[in-house]
Write a structure and sequence with these properties.
With 406 residues, the chain is α/β, with parallel strands linked by helices. 44% of the residues lie in helices and 12% in strands. Helix 2 (34-41) runs antiparallel to helix 3, helix 4 (83-90) crosses helix 5 (92-106) and helix 14 (305-318) packs antiparallel against helix 15 (325-342).
Length: 406
């Protein structure tokens, strides 16, 4: 299913070269009035927070403390997401186009292409794409390999790594847009967002808005996994229902009680309530949900939501920055208790403690890592409440097959 970003030659034909990219889409347009066009397009960031892109760009452009920097964020530490790495592999020049346009719009000279070290295909493709660009563009581009850690893609962690070689989130303020790479105002933007910018600059904001449905604007990349024929990256019209997106991915292969929306920093939703959800930032936000980094993971029958949640919490505890008490002690304690409940070895008070801690963790960390874990846990306690009680009270799991979602 190709709509906008993934339109063009299929991946089986190999990497799209720069000359072919230009023949297909035309030369890079000027960035004149681009921020206004982006604002009219209603483009939101695709890294997880869905922040209005034009607002972020204006914040950087208005700073006076040095020449800005653009950091194209392709760190993608989310285990369930494939969108950023596959986009860089399939459409590297679209990402670079967007980064150059962003730099021109905010007055930046330097561009950092920040790519996850474990995404070997994306690194190789981006390196080759940079080498194909004209010399004046190539001189502005620097490829940086991001460490393999969940928190490496967080914007302050990316800036910290570029500055000091340490990919850990830093306490804020100042935000990167105020003082980031080399102490200069820094626009940190997800690579998918930048690719959308490259198309909006060419075809206009009206064209972009026309791609959405049900009052939404544009398209978005979604990784669909779990109870589908295979994990697949698709591009959908924003505003499409979750059920329609799953059908595009091949439809469900088994009954499902729940969907994990947004990845490890997302939340569980009961299937009956999930299928009709509009995959668009504002409607989801009003219901307390988020598409996050573009993940839809359908829990198959035979998988226990309590065990899945405990597994994710253990991963998040291991991958935490370990810079503050809520991560070092709070998240570790929650993970340990959830693990005992999942393993049918809970101690007296474990479930009550997990329920209480889930409401205390958010907002107390040095970064947002514990907030994501708390949100995931709170959603699990709601969706799988009966199963948590069964595990804790009766030391019994109603599900036999405990294989992981992904």
């Amino acid at each position: 299913m190709s709509i906008a970003l993934l339109a063009g030659p299929p991946a089986v034909q190999g990497i799209e070269r720069y000359a072919d990219h230009q023949r297909r889409l035309g030369a890079l347009p000027p960035a004149t009035e681009l921020i206004g066009s982006i604002e009219r397009s209603a483009l939101r960031g695709k890294g997880g927070a869905a922040f209005p892109v034009a607002t972020k760009w204006r914040s950087v452009a208005s700073q006076r403390a040095g020449t800005p920097v653009v950091l194209a964020n392709g760190g993608e530490g989310e285990p369930l997401s494939r969108k950023d790495r596959m986009l860089m592999e399939q459409r590297p020049h679209l990402v670079i186009d967007g980064a150059l346009l962003a730099a021109n719009a905010v007055g930046a000279n330097d561009i950092v292409l920040y790519v996850g070290a474990d995404h070997a295909g994306a690194i190789q493709t981006m390196q080759r794409a940079v080498s194909e660009r004209p010399g004046t563009e190539r001189a502005r581009l620097r490829l940086v390999s991001a460490p393999v850690r969940y928190v490496s893609g967080e914007e302050t962690a990316a800036v910290h790594f570029v500055n000091a070689g340490i990919a850990l989130p830093t306490s804020i303020p100042p935000r990167p847009y105020e003082r980031g790479v080399d102490g200069r105002p820094t626009l940190v933007q997800n690579v998918e967002t930048l690719a959308h910018v490259a198309l909006i600059a060419r075809f206009g904001d009206e064209w972009y808005r026309s791609l959405g449905v049900a009052g939404a604007s544009g398209t978005t990349l979604v990784t669909v996994g779990g109870a589908v024929p295979q994990t697949v990256l698709i591009e959908i019209h924003q505003g499409m229902t979750l059920a329609d997106a799953v059908n595009v991915a091949g439809g469900i292969t088994s009954d499902s009680d729940a969907v994990l929306l947004g990845g490890y920093f997302g939340g569980w939703i009961q299937s009956g309530a999930a299928w009709g959800l509009s995959l668009d930032a504002d409607p989801l936000h009003r219901l307390g949900h988020s598409l996050g980094c573009g993940v839809v993971a359908v829990l198959p029958s035979g998988r226990c939501g309590v065990i899945e949640t405990a597994r994710i919490l253990a991963y998040l505890a291991h991958e935490s920055a370990r810079q503050c008490g809520p991560c070092t002690f709070g998240l570790r304690a929650i993970s340990a208790a959830a693990g005992r409940i999942a393993g049918l070895t809970s101690t007296p008070g474990d479930l009550e403690r997990v329920q209480r801690w889930s409401g205390l963790l958010a907002g107390r960390g040095a970064c947002h890592h514990p907030d994501g874990a708390a949100g995931l846990l709170a959603s699990a306690l709601h969706v799988f409440s009966g199963e948590f009680t069964l595990h804790d009270d009766q030391r019994r799991c109603s599900i036999v097959n405990t294989q992981a979602v992904a």
